[in-house]
TrEMBL record:
Gene3D superfamilies: Ribonuclease Z/Hydroxyacylglutathione hydrolase-like. SMART domains: Lactamase_B. Signal peptide: none annotated. PANTHER family: 102 KBASES UNSTABLE REGION: FROM 1 TO 119443 (PTHR42978:SF2), QUORUM-QUENCHING LACTONASE YTNP-RELATED-RELATED (PTHR42978). InterPro entries: MBL_superfamily_lactonases, Metallo-B-lactamas, RibonucZ/Hydroxyglut_hydro. It comes from Pseudonocardia ammonioxydans. This is Metallo-beta-lactamase superfamily protein. Its cofactor is Zn(2+). Keywords: Hydrolase, Metal-binding, Zinc. Belongs to the metallo-beta-lactamase superfamily. It holds the Pfam family Lactamase_B. Residues 47-255 form the Metallo-beta-lactamase domain. It comes from the Bacteria.
């Protein structure tokens, strides 16, 4: 079987933020105590990525949409830029640059699947506003993301997605043969993960912010400073772990600075 007869998965880094680690990991060992009230805070790299999938049936899928070039002005009204500055993005990292590297136009993508609608995952979704691409989110995410008035609710910035036609799923869905959307809420109302069953690399689970880091996964799992529903989050981690153990999957975490360096990334460096 040639590579052209297999699913190809390309992981594309799309710029790195920095943030206080507590947003990603509520780890008591790093917290200040009465004995150590001035314990230093951890200001850490928070890399972002999207995933480009070429299916042997000819269809193309993009998982997430990365951070925006204009993050400083776009995020200013929310105040979130000071907590999550995109201060380590090379020119080649921005999503429009990545599309050019792949010789793609937005209309070449059949499916844009947004794991959730936070500002670092849906920011460039309007690249597809005039394309024929089907844009898919979880039904609970869509409902929550339109449930508030004003500019933003936490890391949901309504102008990132408010004019898009969003299709939804309400259960785990095999979108293409070997490509399954998993409902893994908790981080937000309707965060999804992506399972891809590959011929050579085996199963890969792209957890997005259902699991920020290897340390988040555990065991035991360690929650984060941004979790909408902690009980649902723990249940979702158990769900991912069950699939991972059953399939011997590689779990790709949403913002793990160590793991992203170990993965095959960039145009041409795909998994099959």
């Amino acid at each position: 079987m040639s590579d052209n007869d297999k699913i190809k998965v390309t992981i594309l880094p799309t710029g790195t933020m920095h943030a206080d680690l507590t947003w990603l990991l509520i780890d008591p060992s790093r917290m200040a105590t009465q004995q150590q009230p001035d314990k230093s805070r951890d200001w850490v790299e928070v890399p972002t990525h999207v995933v480009y999938i070429e299916h042997p049936n000819g269809q193309k899928l993009m998982w997430d949409a990365g951070v925006p070039r204009d993050w400083e002005t776009r995020w200013a009204p929310s105040g979130l830029g000071q907590f999550f500055p995109v201060d380590a993005a090379a020119e080649e990292d921005w999503l429009d640059s990545r599309l050019k590297q792949l010789n793609l136009e937005p209309n070449d993508i059949d499916y844009l699947v947004l794991s959730h609608l936070h500002l670092d995952h849906a920011a460039n979704a309007k690249f597809w506003e005039k394309a024929d691409t089907k844009i898919i989110v979880d039904e609970a995410e869509k409902e929550g993301a339109f449930s508030f008035d004003g500019h933003n609710k936490g890391a949901h910035i309504k102008s990132d997605y408010d004019t898009l036609q969003l299709d939804t799923i309400g259960e785990d869905t095999e979108l293409l043969p070997g490509v399954t959307l998993l409902r893994t809420p908790g981080h937000t109302w309707g965060t999804m993960s992506l399972q891809v069953d590959l011929a050579d690399a085996g199963t890969m689970i792209f957890a997005s912010d259902s699991l920020y880091l290897k340390e988040s996964y555990g065991p035991p799992p360690i929650a984060a400073g941004i979790v909408y529903d902690t009980v649902a989050w723990f249940n979702s981690v158990d769900k991912i772990r069950g699939i991972q153990e059953r399939t011997d999957a590689t779990v790709v975490f949403g913002h793990d600075a160590n793991q992203i360096k170990e993965l095959r990334t960039g145009p041409g460096n795909y998994y099959t």
